[in-house]
Model the fold of this input.
Amino acid sequence: MNLTEILSQTGGIESMAKDLGIPPAMAKQGAEALLPAILGGFKKQAQGAGSGGGDALGGLGGLLGQLGGGGLLDAVLSPEPTPVEAGNDVLGQIFGTKEVSRSVAGDAAAKTGIDAGTLKKMLPILAMLVAGYMAKQGDGTNSGGGFGGMLGNVLGGAMGGGAAPAAGSGSGALGGLGSLLDLDGDGNPLDDIIGMAGKLRG
Done:
């Protein structure tokens, strides 16, 4: 099951659709187009945390907690309007600049035919759903590789990979999880989108 399906089951996609005043089917289509870039942003954070010799996935878990943890998911699912400022904080961490957010929304608009303005409003809410879901899963994981194993499943499944290998398998500190997230490689949908936007501007 990919992350879009999981977020649908939690009620997140429907809540996002209500916030934006769009049909749930459109919200789901938009989420599917935006998720690879959002997850690519979280991958960059994991890589950054690990570049100084630290625990890449543990560092990302700490960041999720600072941004609001599982409360981010609860805020979207609440009947009250979603406080998108929290989502913009998440985007600021994973994308860095509003220009990247615009590029991501523009890329998704080209793929789906959904208005870029709608997708731009969707981004912070979707970022809250993803961050909150990952934080909740991390908090509730006591075995099977802990937060790292859970995050590998989420990122791997959502980005087209299979289930995460067992934690500790393979070689290196992160084992199979490191290869699943491609932490040593440069394959990242977010890089592709930023690169394309740069070429268009050039």
In short: The chain is about 75% helix and 0% strand. The radius of gyration is 16 Å. The longest helix spans residues 24-51.
